[in-house]
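Retro notes, item 3 of 5
We never archived the inputs for the pyridoxal-5'-phosphate complex last cycle. Fixing that now. Sequence and ligand:
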Amino acid sequence: MLSDRSAVGEGELNAWTRATRAKRASGEPLLDLTVSNPTKAGLPYDDEAILAALATPSTLVYEPDPRGWLEAREALVAAGLAPHVDQVFLTASTSEAYAHLFTLLADPGDEILVPAPSYPLLAHLAHLAGVALVPYACRYDGRWSFDAAELYESVSDRTRAIVAVSPNHPTGAYLDADQLEALASFEVPLIVDEVFHAYPLEAPASTPRAFERAEGLVFALDGASKRLALPQVKLGWISIAGPDAMVKAATERLEGIVDTYLSPSTTQHALPALLALDAAPRAIRERAAAHLAALRAVCAGTAMTSPRVEGGWYAPVRLPATKTDEAWALALVEAGVLCHPGYFYDFPDDEAWVVVSLLTPPEDFARGIDQLARLAR
Ligand SMILES: Cc1ncc(COP(=O)(O)O)c(C=O)c1O
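Structure as it came back at the time:
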């Protein structure tokens, strides 16, 4: 009765989630280093300004525009977050933006190249769209990067797009100009997810935005969830750049797709005012930098290492491969610490990685990484 592609997140729960639930149910205290919701991470928000932005009178009238409210698009262009009002589409989230782009670019059975390790939701989004994900490896050698020649080997006559996440979740690597150029040279549309772009840590000197350097067709994704640290606002946006004829063809089709749903709601009217609020993003940048420094300090003298984190809210930690990353993460749950095992993100099977969130409230982070260091000693 039900379609195969509607089956996402089913099947047996993985061992880490089962152990975490059991530990929570036992009532024992837990140090949660997987925090991903900024609104519950003890950050300073300008509540009054946010509420005032949401209460704008223009929300009282329905004037649908498939690309999203013009003044919101103008505000994105003015903030340098989109190339032109006609080359940006508002969506209800970045996840929805991915879904629209998969519809725009691929038919069921087509292939989309994605980085590994990377953001786990991509697998669900692709499954729902009926497209196949083909991973390309990103490896650490002082920086996380991919081998362009190897990536090119994965391009087939069914490849419809290459996804890059800049900075990547959870490795933190930005795409640099050379990598953007290499990806563009394959003449396959690029989808570059830049939701963490505003959170540099150990970033390279130049972190170009994909739409500024577009040689081929590029779709750059961003959204309120990370950029403004306001996931509840439910707004994402797609910037489109590249050769004029390709941009024209893509924007016309995309307009038809978004017009079918018209999903951004009244919160798009708040975007111009919300873009000016920086209290929570600034606090995240400061917290993430302090946590990364603390992580480096506890790694010293242990068997765990913390590679360079160029940006974002997460830090992968490498542990000795004496046991699998799942076994490490389960041992940590037992010790009262929650870290995601690397396999959730497609880290290589023969390496042991866990991922910690740099958004974690400071006291829990300090105690959690101390426990981690104790286990890895
Ligand atoms: C890399 C990346 N892209 C997109 C998203 C989803 O963003 P949104 O809340 O706008 O759907 C996330 C959320 O964690 C993410 O990590």
